[in-house]
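Example 3.2
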Amino acid sequence: MKQQAADAAPGQAARAAWMRVLALASPAELDRACAGLGALPAHRWLRRPETGMAMVRARSGGDGGRFNLGEMTLTRCTVALEDGPVGVAYVQGRDARHAEQAALLDGLLQLPAWHERVREGVIAPLARAREERLSRQSAQDAATRVEFFTMVRGE
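Structure, written as tokens:
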């Protein structure tokens, strides 16, 4: 049983990584990426996009005791592809279309016939775009950082 769980772990880690990319992509980027795939397979709703609240928890100092930081709005969706896999998505905010597309792409990534095409045509470009945005923001933050220091008198 432990071996089976160990074998599933790499697949779960990869799925978690692509689900993160899909959830953090902007809805406009996701629209463009989906349009580039052409005709997508039929799917049916298992759970239509629903908007609700989730409690965000944090740790004091990163390793202290957990506390409730506050609530955030999120939208979830679940679809079943006609070929069998179930796609799931949870995205921040109220964008039902974003949740639907992310769930559909999650399902497609589980199909061997679509996996590489979606990974290279959608996931990789979205991940690169996010890294570039973070890099630009980091450079902008560094340019405006003020360094404070104290001079000691009498030495």
